[in-house]
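pasting input
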Amino acid sequence: MLSNRRTLLKAGMATGTLAIATGAGLLTPRGVLAAWPEKAFKAKKYPDALQALAGTDQLTDSDTIKVKAPDIAENGAVVTVTVTTSLPKVENISMFVPVNAFPLSASYEMSTATDGFITGRIKMAKTSDVIAVVKADGKLYTAQKTVKVTLGGCGG
Amino acid sequence: MANKMKIRAWIENDKTTVKAIIFHPMETGLRKDKKSGKPIPAHYITEVSCEHNGKSILNCMWGPSVSKNPFFSFRFAGAKPGDKLKISWVDNKGLSGSTEAQIS
């Protein structure tokens, strides 16, 4: 299995991972929704990642967004975060962890039928805020919560 | 190999709650092999799309900092019992997987 992984990696390097990903797109129709924003995910600083994802850094604090996460996470490799919002017309919910090597953790594109609610598990390198950025009706809103991490979950 | 997924979807008060877990290593590329000291190459899911009866309802875009064997949950409106829910994913190495489930 290990040798298998190596071969795959080589193949990936040679053809360019993105090309393959698009080639394998048979299973993932992506017509209406935006493609994976590589620049935002590769950004190493939170403002850069935000800029690359949303095209702006103008955010409004909103108490209609609730970020539910543990106060203390013993294991930074698995931190369950729930973002709930009562804002209408939610288009996107994204989660950022500024101290991580790559601050943008996950971004969820919602359809009109989808509620402003998402749960996911993310990794956190150390104690930090978890920042939720919600795009609703073309505007950006934000809320955050501090999570204390006793054991970092990003390797190293 | 890493092509396993579990989906549960049920209707409650006109809304469908979906819980899904995909079995995937979600390797960040930052970890090092303890024996050889070499970095373990990044291997993580980049996109997950969820469809209800062929209509896209949620598109997840993930980075390497989503936990191993990622679990996620969301809610949507407008489904009936017996409707089909399809979740497919693709990772940074071009591997992909897809599973269909019935809404109960």
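fyi The longest strand of chain B covers residues 4-12.
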